Amino acid sequence: MLQRPRRNRKSEAIRQMVQETHVSAANLIFPLFIVEGENQKTEVASMPGIYRYSIDNLLREVESCMKLGLTSFDLFPNIEEALKDKYATESHREGSLYLRAISQVKKEFPEACVITDVAMDPYSSDGHDGIVENGEILNDETLEVLGKMALAHAQSGADIIAPSDMMDGRVGYIRRVLDENGFKHVSIMSYSAKYASAFYGPFRDALNSAPKFGDKKGYQMNPANQREALIEARLDEAEGADFLMVKPALPYLDVIKLLKDNTELPIAAYNVSGEYAMVKAAIQNGWLNEQRAITEVLLSIRRAGATAILTYHAKEVLENKWL
Ligand code: PBG
Description:
Layout: H1 12-17, E1 28-34, E2 41-44, E3 47-53, H2 55-67, E4 72-77, H3 97-108, E5 113-118, E6 131-133, E7 136-138, H4 140-156, E8 160-163, H5 170-180, E9 187-194, H6 201-207, H7 227-238, E10 243-247, H8 253-262, E11 267-271, H9 273-284, H10 290-304, E12 308-311, H11 314-319
Parallel strand pairs: 1-3, 1-4, 1-12, 4-5, 5-8, 8-9, 9-10, 10-11, 11-12
Antiparallel strand pairs: 2-3, 6-7
Helix pairs in contact: 2-3, 4-5, 7-8
Bound molecules: ligand PBG.
Keywords: Heme biosynthesis, Lyase, Porphyrin biosynthesis
EC number: 4.2.1.24
Pathway: Porphyrin-containing compound metabolism; protoporphyrin-IX biosynthesis; coproporphyrinogen-III from 5-aminolevulinate: step 1/4
């Protein structure tokens, strides 16, 4: 045998020398949930180890992440039911929980990268990502709300705006609003291939943001489709996106690879709440080895072609020095 692949696996030193893919702190983005109030830190039942923080505790959490070298954060608000309405006006109201959180994190930690979520659902009394009329999700009318949100986020100090709504034309619309208002340096990370997935369940528990009727299949992508992701990716690229995202990650590694092969833009992948819950539940049952399962998940997403990974595991892998 001339070729014996096992020679390159014979010691830890050689295995590390030939390792093709790595995950480092710089690749990780940590999603954080925010609630109104003071000194709040409540665990999300379906996401062990993940909490909703009031702004004071959010700042402490960001600080402890920064000390671990984790410097990118994606913020999501849990909005009181009483503040929700059809037009998600709370999403761009001056002084709202979310806008205060953005500006306080940026004020305390100017070197942190703050990514903000642009979508109506946490603020919508319908629980949808667009304006609802007679059971329909309106596209172009929704863009106006998204533009206002994106502008409010930029004014509060957001580094990257991440539209997760899947309305057509939103990247171009938001890019124009940002540029016209002097925010040409604010980036857009577009949820390009966002699927109508079962794996968002725990996130909707965390934010209490589940749709009040129907589902999101009229705007999020069909899990059966791969080529359609290319249409979304090309549009977002042409409309000015700086990053393309695939979401969820693990059930869509093929889509990550496909986009990687078809764009020069960096790809982000969202290792979503249901993926986290699935792994944690098995670990809690003693069915998976924690360190090995989690690092394998993150490596596989990088191997498929993601540059950045949004993951609820971000802090624990650094705290435990698993990378
Ligand atoms: C909402 C949004 C969702 C997630 C991120 N932004 C849920 C949804 O589309 O219903 C899910 C993230 C996760 O599950 O971790 N626009």
